[in-house]
Amino acid sequence: MLTLLTFPAAFGQFSASPFCVKTAYMLQLSGQSWQRSDMLNPSKMPYQKLPVLRTSQRLVADSDLIRDWLETQGANFDADLSDIQKAQSRALIRMAEEHIYNHVVLDRWGNDEVWPILRDMFFTEVPALIRRPVTHAIRKSVMKRMDGAGVSRFSDTERTDRLERDLEAISAFLWQSPFLFGESPTAADMSVGPVLAAMRATPKETQLTRRIKTDTLLNSYLDRLEQAIPL
């Protein structure tokens, strides 16, 4: 049986990481037998991050590489898509994972109301006596990464405007069908959906959580995806 090494469930989600949720969705639709194994510290994993899939031969790290491996085993997440749709799917996945996701990270790690919740949930393995200084350094590193990505350099209004254009692009697809490319979830849904769901699930009300929760189209889409691929 395959084992998905994943961050634990959090905020009502299968995992705090949308990439772990994405991989769980793919495993569900692949037809493979699998189980989860939770961990908080991926420092000994390939690339020092999760998800990682343990197979009988090796560890497969990174959600995209896990997708490639599952497809070598017979899965086909975009079976009914045209070449143009597959190209659009690729663009949507990159937009969600490389841009929208950074807004989610900033909304959690950069928010002084949310941060204490994250710190006490995700760093329980750090002794309480040194937890604050250790996690402060980790938070500082994450925020430096957000600065490097450019997201944290913008004003709140500028960030909102940039994100809004992405959400409008996603919504344009969802006006046409229940999922991004038709009646059933495809690879794009398994990437875009978890990122938006993570935005909605941030454990304090923020501008981003309100944006998703008050959007009937996006909110119902996320509910529909969770029902279509129960975890």
Q: Assign a percent range to the helix content.
A: 55-70%
What series of H and E elements makes up the topology? Answer: EHEEEHHHHHHHH
Largest sheet descriptor: 4 strands, mixed
The coarse overall form would be globular
Report the uncertain regions: none
- Separation of termini? 17 Å
Look at the helices and sheets and give the structural class: alpha+beta
Number of helices: 9
Please report the total strand number as a whole number: 4
Radius of gyration: 18 Å
Report on this model:
This protein is of the alpha+beta class. Helix content is 58%, strand content 7%. It is built from 9 helices and 4 strands; from the N terminus they run E-H-E-E-E-H-H-H-H-H-H-H-H. The protein has helices spanning 18-30, 63-72, 83-109, 115-122, 128-149, 156-174, 187-201, 207-213, 216-228, and strands at 2-6, 34-38, 52-54, 59-61. Strands 2-1-3-4 form a 4-stranded mixed beta sheet, with helices on one face. Strand 1 (2-6), helix 1 (18-30) and strand 2 form a beta-alpha-beta unit.
What topology does this entry show?
Blueprint: E1 2-6, H1 18-30, E2 34-38, E3 52-54, E4 59-61, H2 63-72, H3 83-109, H4 115-122, H5 128-149, H6 156-174, H7 187-201, H8 207-213, H9 216-228
Parallel strand pairs: 1-2
Antiparallel strand pairs: 1-3, 3-4
Helix pairs in contact: 1-2, 1-7, 3-5, 3-6, 3-7, 7-8, 7-9
Supply the key terms.
alpha+beta, four-stranded mixed beta sheet, 4 strands
Quick overview of this protein structure:
This protein has 231 residues and is an alpha+beta fold. Helices cover 58% and strands 7% of the residues. The chain has nine helices and four strands; from the N terminus they run βαβββαααααααα.
